[in-house]
């Protein structure tokens, strides 16, 4: 993944990562059951990336334009700090996060892929996107994953942030020594 020095420096300031869902955490496909319930698939590498970010002090939030019981379950499973559904206009939820966590725009990363994401992407310090995002989202982002939404893009972007903050090698070292020290990775969600 190519990146600028500016992207690397901005990633060092990130204290909260806000995620869109459709097209970012998923590939954008939606299956609808007979009862109207929406079904989506999620990438476990993205899930582990989210969990590692949290473990190393970065808060997480989801702001999505749809509502889904399955998504609410996934957000609980990953222990997402703040979860907003049914928000076509994402700015009010973003402003709530700023106030609740006392964070400045430059302390937020936002990973989005489409028109609904542009307003928040345009305000945060670290706007990022997926490989199959719209041209408009790509034009606002300072970092573009090599991967499409739902296929590891979130994980790659989170790794970049953790590397910029000097935390990634410690994570890798911890996993290298799990079996040697009779430790487990129990409690880590994917």
UniProtKB/TrEMBL annotation:
Record Gene3D superfamilies: HAD superfamily/HAD-like
Keyword Cell membrane in record: no
Organism domain of life: Bacteria
GO molecular function, one term: metal ion binding
Keyword line: Hydrolase, Lipopolysaccharide biosynthesis, Magnesium, Metal-binding
Cofactor(s) listed in the protein's UniProt record: Mg(2+)
Positions of substrate binding: 22
EC number: 3.1.3.45
Top class in the EC scheme: hydrolase
GO biological process, one term: lipopolysaccharide biosynthetic process
Quaternary context: Homotetramer.
Protein name: 3-deoxy-D-manno-octulosonate 8-phosphate phosphatase KdsC
Organism: Megamonas hypermegale
